[in-house]
Amino acid sequence: MNKILLVDDEKRALEMLERVLKMAGYITVGVTDPRTVQGIIKKEQLSVAVFDLMMPGMNGLDLLESVRDTDPDLPVIILTGHGTIKTAVEAVKRGAFDYVTKPYDIDEVDLIIKRAIQQRRLLLENKILREKLLERSPLSKIVTEDRAMERLLKEVQTLANINTTTLITGESGTGKELIAKALHFSGIRHDKPFVTIDCGGIPETILESEIFGHVKGAFTGAHVDKKGYMEVAERGTVFFDEISELPFFLQKKLLRAIQEKEFSKVGDTRTIKANIRIIAATNKDLKEEVSLGKFREDLFYRLNVVSLRLPPLRDRFQDIPLLAHYFLAEFNIKFNKRVNMISEEALGKMMAYDWPGNIRELKNTIERVVVFKEDKIISLQDLPDEIRRFDCDKVEDILPLKEFRERTLGNMTKDYIKMLLALYKGNVSKAAARAQIDRGNFRKLMKRFAVSAREYRQ
Asked: Residue 124 sits in which domain range?
């Protein structure tokens, strides 16, 4: 039910408007003293406010300004006489939703209120959507209990709002692109483009055109002007993945673009200003590449303003149970499965394995197992041969799994609850049924882990 705040110093006019709006199905809160409005707005959940323009002590414009400070999204409708229409128009310019002239037509007032309520609802839905996107940002997808990784994530949070060139290093599969996205989407450029250039995956013959664009006639087949990634990403971020694979002849052009903050399209003498952030990643040692003459030393130092090194999964083995269960919950929902446990024996082998493909290999392993799994427990026999047969003297040292489970169970349970609510669009009953627990206990878990169903409803 929508609640309308009515403010008019004339008591009879206020009572009449309240009576008519109540008949139309609204809940009303009527006051004659505009000085009480701030307290009401803070206490009540209002859909719309209707203010008389001319009131002693505080007129409608002053009241509008004070409301903007308390609840900037609250739609305000101004009631005005014919002699003060100019002032009412000024109120609209200052943020009022609309105005109605006296004597007013109640159908007109009702129509404007309905439009205002719709605007309020859209603003609220957009706010919830932004919060969901923030919650599901790449930074929130990085799960870890490793101290080195936790320090790195704090650095990422700091760097997100600093417009500086960043080099991310680490083995393949450690999550370099996820960190790059976290830097972008958690920072000041989050609402601008994030463009990835796979330096090793684009043929060298067209790579320059893909990065910088070209003009018509620049080469055979260039029939029209084309924007490159650098231009498409204006005011956003360009992520050069596997920067070590960038051909030597293009390294100089990229260096100039970073230094001068401008570049030229292929076949063009004009320059284009580049307001972009550069993030690069590599699984190679760029210093060694420089010493071998494969990478420009000046470009290396330009890229290496800030460096983030991602550790391999074998160096953060205590994260393996956490990551394995995180991916398990994700693929249960994706494939409509109920695989809810990994045996101690299987988990022990997973923690002993050296994971040359790092997190990517772990994720692919869990996905493959879940796809073919018919019962609820992943056993040692379900794992690929290379993991089952892996021999490591450290296995006995790694096996205090009870401690790891206790530390990670809370995070895994919270992720599980959130995934179920997302799957069933906030329907607690369906989520509880899928979890095979009663609704009351599911709600207790939601309360314990501070998870709200409302944000998942559509």
From this structure: 3-133
Tokens coding 28 = 């009303």
What three-state secondary structure class fits 136? Answer: coil
Domain-ending residue, one of 133, 159, 181 = 133
Tokens of 406: 């206790």
Looking at the 3D structure of the chain, how many domains does it have? 3
With residue 335 as reference, give the H or E element that holds it: helix 320-335
Three-state DSSP at 196 gives: strand
Mean pLDDT of 142-147: 84
Residue with tokens 């169903």: 453
Say if residues 177 and 360 touch (Cβ distance below 8 Å).
Answer: no
Domain end (from 133, 149, 170):
133
Containing 80, the helix (H) or strand (E) segment is strand 76-80
Residues 303 and 188 in one domain: yes
50-102 per-position pLDDT tens digit: 988 888 777 778 888 888 778 888 899 988 876 678 888 888 888 888 888 88
Q: Residue 128 is encoded by which pair of tokens?
A: 């919830």
SS3 358: helix
User: Could you write out the DSSP letters of every residue in 442-455?
Assistant: HHHHHHHTT--SGG
DSSP state, residue 389: T
Tokens of 233: 């990403």
Q: Which residue matches tokens 């790694």? A: 398
Coil, strand or helix at 241: strand
Whether residue 327 contacts residue 362, with contact meaning beta carbons closer than 8 Å, is answered with yes
What's the CA gap between 73 and 2, in Å, rounded?
A: 15
Residues 213 and 271 in one domain: yes
State how far the Cα of 126 lies from the Cα of 385, in Å rounded to an integer: 48
pTM over 0.70: no
For the cut 60, the answer to whether the pLDDT of residue 394 exceeds it is no
Element (H, E) at 87: helix 85-93
The pLDDT assigned to 243 comes to: 97
In terms of C-beta distances under 8 Å and separation of at least 24 residues, what long-range contacts does 145-148 make, across chains too? Answer: 145/318, 145/319, 145/322, 145/407, 145/408, 146/311, 146/316, 146/318, 146/319, 148/311, 148/315, 148/316
Tokens of 111: 């129509």
Distance from chain centroid for Cα 59: 42
